[in-house]
Write a structure and sequence with these properties.
With about 140 residues, the chain is mostly beta strands. The protein has an 8-stranded antiparallel sheet with strand order 1-4-5-10-6-7-8-9, with no helix packed on it. Strand 7 and strand 8 form a beta hairpin. The protein is elongated, with a radius of gyration of 18 Å. The relative contact order is 0.20. The model has no long low-confidence stretch (mean pLDDT about 85). Keywords: Autocatalytic cleavage, DNA damage, DNA repair, Hydrolase, SOS response. It holds the Pfam family Peptidase_S24. This is LexA family protein.
Length: about 140
């Protein structure tokens, strides 16, 4: 079950150095040390939070969304202002339990689906389901 991280007031801008326009994942040599001083910055709040008044954060528990890149301990950036469409990953209250699932239509019926095939799709037509928001981003930290 996801843990709720309560909505916060509009974040204070925090631009951090972002010197390179693009970094390749492969080995391509080293950038020029002068590029470190180009003055570019990146504010993750500006990049990830499109509508601050409608955005909240949650921490994920469980393994149902792992194959979709959402893992235990990840932080979700959730936007309440987006209308859910099939394919969106939603945070929803389903029969009194908070869950994170992908919204799909199978045939003409709506379902909440896990990324993990061990969990069967949940038909939501006959259940009490309240959508809290659409997941816009996932913040995944690597262990160091």
């Amino acid at each position: 079950m996801p843990k709720i991280m309560h909505p916060h007031p509009t974040p204070t801008p925090l631009p951090l150095p972002h010197p390179l326009p693009l970094t390749r994942a492969g080995l391509s040599g080293f950038p020029s040390p002068a590029q470190d001083y180009e003055g570019r910055t990146l504010d993750l709040n500006e990049r990830l939070v499109k509508r601050p008044a409608a955005t909240f954060f949650m921490t994920v528990t469980g393994d149902s969304m792992g194959p979709l890149g959402i893992h235990e301990g990840d932080i979700l950036v959730v936007d309440r202002s987006i209308d859910p469409r099939p394919g969106h990953i939603l945070v929803a209250m389903l029969d009194g339990e908070l869950t994170v699932k992908r919204y799909e239509r199978i045939g003409q019926r709506p379902y909440l689906c896990s990324g993990n095939p061990r969990y069967t799709p949940i038909p939501i037509a006959d259940l009490e389901c309240q959508v809290w928001g659409v997941v816009r981003s996932v913040i995944h930290e690597f262990p160091v």
